[in-house]
Structures are given as C-alpha cells and as structure tokens.
Amino acid sequence: MSTDSPKPPDILEGLDAHADELRALVEAARSKEGERFAGALVTLLTALLTAHSGLGALAGPAASALARFVVEQSAHGKMRRALAELAEEQAEADRVRAVADAVGRTLGPFLAPLVGGVAAVRGQLAELLEERELELVAGARTLPSRDRLAPSTLLRAEYGVVPFDEARRAEELAALEAWCAHADPLAAWLWTGPGGSGKTRLAAEFAGRLRRAGWRAGFLPRERDADLGGLRDGVRRVVRPTLIVVDYPENRVKAVAALLRALLDRPAVDGRPPERVRVLLLARQAGDWWTALTRWSSGGVGAALASASREPRELSPLAREALDRAAVFETALQRFAEVLGRPVPAGPRPTLADDDFEPVLLIHMAALAFLHDDPVGTAGQVLDRVLDREVTTVLAAMGIAENEVERRNEAAFVLERAMAACTLVGGVPDKTGFRRLREAAVRAGELEETGLVREARELRRFHGTPGGGLEAPQPDLLGEHLVARVLKGFPSPEGFAAWLEGVLAAVEQPGALEHAFTVLGRLADRADAALRVFGALLDADLRARAPDAVRAARAVGRLRRANPYPLGQLLAEQVEKAVPADEPGAAFCAGLVELIERPSPALAELAELCLRRQLEFARSSGSEPAELARLLSDHGVWLGELGRLEEALAATREAVDHFRE
Fold first, then answer.
1. CA 196 – CA 201 distance, rounded (Å)
2. How open is the CA angle 353-359-362, to the nearest 5 degrees?
3. What is the mean pLDDT of residues 644-649?
4. Label partner for 159 (CA 20 to 30 A): which of 266, 376, 569, 582?
5. Is it the case that residue 130 has pLDDT exceeding 60?
6. Mean pLDDT across 350-370
7. Distance in angstroms between the alpha carbons of the first and the last residue of the chain
8. Distance between CA 351 and CA 376 in Å, rounded?
9. Between 585 and 26, where is the model more confident?
10. Please, what sign has the CA dihedral across residues 137, 142, 143, 147?
11. 33: left (phi over 0), alpha (psi -120 to 50) or beta
12. d(Cα 595, Cα 168) in Å, to the nearest integer?
C-alpha cells in the first residue's frame, strides 16, 4: 500500500465543508481560552483529515500532533486574532469562507511536512493497531527445556523439531505462493488430509515465509471464536497483505462465516480495493460443514466463497514410497537424538510398509519409539509406545520411582484418565477447570490414594496453559488414541459414558459436549464402542443434546466403515424412537432441519425423518395447503438424496397439488 502524503491544497479545499467545526473554532478564539481553542482546533483537524487525508483511524492522532505543533510554534496567534475579529453581520456563507481562508493561511505551511511525516510512519502505526485488533498466532513456538519436554512435544507441528521437508513439499509451496500472489482482495482455500498428514506444519512453514516477506500471517486462535464482534472489528484494520490460517474449521463454521463476512465488508482505502487477505482452511475432509459454509446466505458468504475460493485440495502424503519413508524416518531419528542427547541406535530400521504409516506423523512417532529402543510394530503399537513414554515422563516428574510398582500403576491410571478427559472436553483454560477435571476423571471408590490426584498437577509442567489450565493432548491422533485406550479399560461403553457424564458435569465448559461428540465420532471409525458411547450420551438428554451431536456429525463427515455415516443414522434412530409427531416434536424436528444444509450425506436420514415427523403433525393438525406443500417439497428433496426416487416423485407431485389449491 502506498504511503504517499496527501497534498495540502487537496485537504484545504475541503475546509469550508466543515462549517460546524469552523464555527466552534471562532467561538473558542473569541473566548480567549487557550485550551478551548486548542481543543476546537483538534476537532476541526480530525474532521478534516478523516474526510480528506486517507489516514483513516490515524486521523485523530495526526490531528493532535498537528495542533500541538502549530500551538508550540506560536503560529496560531495570528489566526486566533483574525477569527476573533470577524464581523458578526457577515452572511453565513461569507463568514465560513473567511474563516476557512484564515485557517488555511495559517495551516498551509504546516500541513505538507506534518501530514507527510505522519504518513511516513502511518504503516507502522497502523500495524500496531492491526496487531492489537487482529490476533494471529505465528504457528511456531520455542522448544521448552529438557526438564519440561514431554515426548509428544517433539511431535507437535508448532515446535518444528524435525526440519521442514522443502524438497518433498515444493509443489505445495509453489501452489500457495501463486495463490497469494494474485491481486484479488480476498481468497479462501480449503486443504484437507487425515490427521497427521502434515497440514498444520505446511501452513506454519508457509506463514513464516510470508512474515519474512512483510506479510502478516498466522493462525486464528480458537479463543477468538467466542468474540465474533471483536473478530469483525479486527479484520477491518488490515493494512498489509495478510494470511489467516484456520485449523479445524469443521468445528468453527460460525466463526469462519463471521470472518469471511467481515472481510467482504471491508471498505476501499484511498480509492483502492482493500489489502489482500488469504484465508487458508485446514480440515480432515470437505464434508457437510463445507457445504454449509459455501451455502451460507447471510452476508453473501456462500456466494463469495464460490467466486473467491479454489476447489478443495487434498494434501498428498509426504512419503508414499518405502524409500521416502526410510529417509523421513532417518531424518526424524537423527533430530530427536540430537534434541534429547541420546545416541542413535544401531541395527536395522523398521520398514514401515503398512499403509497406516502413510501419515508423516506416524513415521515420526516410529522414529521416537525406535530411539528409546521400543519395538515399533504396527501403527497402533507405535501410538501406545509414545503414550507410555508420555506417562513415564510425568511419573518421573512426580518423583515416583520405578520400583514403586503399585503406586506407579495407580498414578498412571490417574494420568491417563485426566489426559483422556482433557482430550474429550478440548482442554481446560484455568486452575479451577483443571482441578475439577482431574478430580472428576477419577471416580470415587476407584482410587483410595487421593494424593496422586493432587500430584497429577505435574501434567501442567509439560502442557499447562498461562491461566493454570491444561491443554488437550497433542497431536490430536495421540489424544484420540488415548481416549480409545481408556475406553477399552472400562467394563462397558455405557460405563465409560457414565464416567464422561461426570467429567462434563464437573467442567461445565461451553463447547465441551460438542467436542466430546466429535472425538467419539472420529473414534467410531475404528471402534464400535465409541459409537455406543456417542449413543448413550445422546440418549441421556436427546432434545438438549441433539444440536451438538448434529454439529459433531457434520464435522466428522464420512467414516471408513461399511456404513460411512453411522452418526447421522444413530441420530435418526433415536429421534424416531423418542420424538412423537406432536406439536413439540414437530418444533424440535424443525430446529434440527435448520442445522442441516443440502446436500448432506452424513445427515440425510435424520433430515428425512424430521421432515416426515413435521408432515405427520401438519396433516393431523389441518395445516394450510401452502405449509403442506412446502414440507412435501423439502421431504421429496431429502428422499431423493437417499436414493428413494419413487417416494421423492410422489412427494413432489403431492406438493404441486397442494400449491394449486
């Protein structure tokens, strides 16, 4: 953006348009009160610079600087006397013109250097305002000291322990660079890939490169999601090219829509289009949530995405072939050994030929396990090895010796329950939340040694938040595997669900239930027990919890099962069993349908059932033909999506008949 200073004549030509401010300045001059005159001068200059200088939010500070400089140079004395002596009997237009001339003669010599001086630092000042209003996280953190270093920390993208593989990601970097180089003021791009595929690491690396090139670039913190008003205000201050990365947008649809709407509403600056902003979305898949976002009608978000976004791109595996995996493994092994001060083991390396090792994160985990002389085995066993090391690290910090077998087992029980609970609720931000979580994570009667529950505070040494809370275990694959492991330790899924109910009740955290549903939904890909827990949670209070479950099912999307959409099917079954076709039931179903955008493979069964319930009530209560026609038309659409074409056609024909009535 150019920082050329506006020419004083252009500004002075607008003086007579500010009659009210000029009149106040004359009255202040006649009062002979210096402070009043200075204040009136600031007010006039603020209005003048706001309207004619292009300084925007900096007009006020610039006006104060101008007024102070004029007063300090004693240049205002002649202007004050001239204003005080203006004849009262002059016509209004003549008097305004005379005041403008007197002010202009005094300010003319100062405007050029002062406006130019402010304009010269305008970019820096505006960046300070932008930093304050639009908070972005760099996506890079400094590795903690070894006494605070957990094994999982070595695997997190933001620490970048393993060097970024530029050679194998050259194509992706080039595509992102070309996207950012385009002149469009706004563009969005969704990149997808399974957990551990390297999406966050690629985005963090690219954001760092843009920052070094003068861009503002980083990740939008999840904490901003609750402050949509602040988010909208922040993006209006963008004054330089900006990249905003949104991780897990499938769980943040409302915030992403608000962000895009605010970016669309940005005004032109100095007659030029707003500065370039790129929004990079990182999700596991483009599912129903993406459909909902691209069809978001409020504020034109859907239309803007259709015109300003590229087709979603799936991130290619970093190491698909055996030789590539071996090279990635060796690089990670050498780096982990260097950071931990351990010798690199000799002997043959694991082959990692199984498809489960396609995500680069699993290759890094295998290298970490190998470094500790742990057998690698399958991808699931590697996850177990890393979790075991995580627990062992915290046990050492708790001061529990290896020969204290019973106490060690009890402590491991506490730690795993606390970390699993933290995964399910999405982390806890403060001390109170952490205390409630670790106490609820161990149900009464299962552990007599309550001191261990207190000592679990050591978890915060490795994963604490600034407020004394606890981050959810990262990377996500590790946290999700831990939940699956704890689930297996319960006698039944229903017992796990009862335990989770206690955790949710103790934490009382907004969004925790939806987060728990999402984690369980992802686990349902490989554990039927997780689906049973999902159902038990939902069944406990269907009407209150169904909206959270719908949002979670939309975020999870397609699973790799014979039935790829079991969450939507489970929701439909429970609604069919528990919700009658009466007035409250119809209203409840209508509310669920509003959460579902077409097309929605994940939730089509639920949408069809809800429309059917509404139709049953509408028929029994004698609804107007127009209402019946609307419901029949919508029902026909969902029947068609389920492949029930004859029923869809019959519903459409009946809808047409009602429209004609």
1. 10
2. 75
3. 93
4. 376
5. no
6. 94
7. 61
8. 10
9. 585
10. negative
11. beta
12. 40
Q: Is the pLDDT of residue 497 over 60?
A: yes
Q: Note whether 553 and 590 are within 8 A (CB).
A: no
Within 8 A by CB and 6+ apart from 392, the residues are none
Task: Estimate to the nearest angstrom the gap between the alpha carbon of 32 and the chain centroid.
Answer: 56
Nearest to residue 176, comparing CAs of 197, 201, 206, 204?
206
Mean pLDDT of the chain: 84
362-367 LR contacts (CB < 8 Å, sep 24+) = 362/196, 362/477, 363/319, 363/325, 363/328, 363/329, 363/332, 364/155, 364/162, 364/328, 364/332, 365/155, 366/329, 367/329, 367/330, 367/332, 367/333, 367/336
Helix or strand holding residue 314 (H, E): strand 313-314
Place of tokens 């900006």: 242
Please name the residue that has the structure tokens 């946290």.
Answer: 479
Question: How sure is the predictor about 129, in pLDDT bands with cuts at 50, 70 and 90?
Answer: very low
Task: Please give the Cα distance from 342 to 347 (Å, whole number).
Answer: 15
- Structure-block tokens of residue 533: 């827990």
The answer to whether 437 touches 422, Cβ cutoff 8 Å, is: yes
What is the reported pLDDT for 5? 38
Q: How far is CA 415 from the centre of its chain?
A: 28
Structure pTM?
A: 0.77
In a 3-state reduction of DSSP, which class is residue 354? coil
144: Cβ contacts below 8 Å, ≥ 6 apart: 153, 462
As a whole number of angstroms, the distance between CA 542 and CA 534 comes to 11
Cβ-based neighbours of 449, under 8 Å, separated by 6 or more: 407, 410
CB-based contacts of 248, cutoff 8 Å, min separation 6: 222, 282, 283
**Higher per-residue confidence, 251 vs 223:** 251
Helix (H) or strand (E) holding 283: strand 277-283
Tokens of 433: 């939340």
DSSP result, 451-518: HHHHHGGGHHHHHB-TTEEEPPPSSHHHHHHHHHHHHHTSSSHHHHHHHHHHHHHHH--TTHHHHHHH
Give the pLDDT score at 49: 72
Per-residue model confidence (pLDDT) at position 598:
79
In terms of Cα–Cα distance, which of 120, 117, 111 is closest to 45? 111
**Burial grade of 626 (CB within 10 A; 0-12, 13-18, 19 or more):** exposed
In residues, how long is the chain?
A: 661
Joined tokens for residue 194: 């399974």
Quote the CA–CA distance of 380 and 278 in Å, as a whole number: 37
Q: Is the peptide bond before 475 cis (omega within 30 degrees of 0)?
A: yes
Question: How far apart are the C-alpha atoms of 147 and 321, rounded to whole Å?
Answer: 37
Query: Which pLDDT belongs to residue 490?
Result: 93
Name the β-bridge partners of 544: none
Query: What are the backbone dihedrals phi and psi of residue 564, each rounded to the nearest 5 degrees, phi first?
Result: -75, -10
Token readout for 529 is: 């027990």
Helix (H/G/I), strand (E/B), else coil: 213:
coil
Q: With beta carbons less than 8 A apart as the criterion, state whether 196 and 365 touch.
A: no
CB burial of 213-249 (b: ≥16 within 10 Å; e: otherwise) equals eebbbbbbebebbeebeebeebbbbbbebbbbbbbeb
Alpha carbons 398 and 459: distance in angstroms, whole number: 9
Residue 456's contacts (CB-CB under 8 Å, 6 or more residues apart) are 398, 411, 414, 415, 418, 438
How wide is the angle at C-alpha 237 spanned by C-alphas 231 and 241, nearest 5°?
Answer: 105
Q: Which of 91-105, 472-486, 606-620 has the lowest mean pLDDT?
A: 91-105
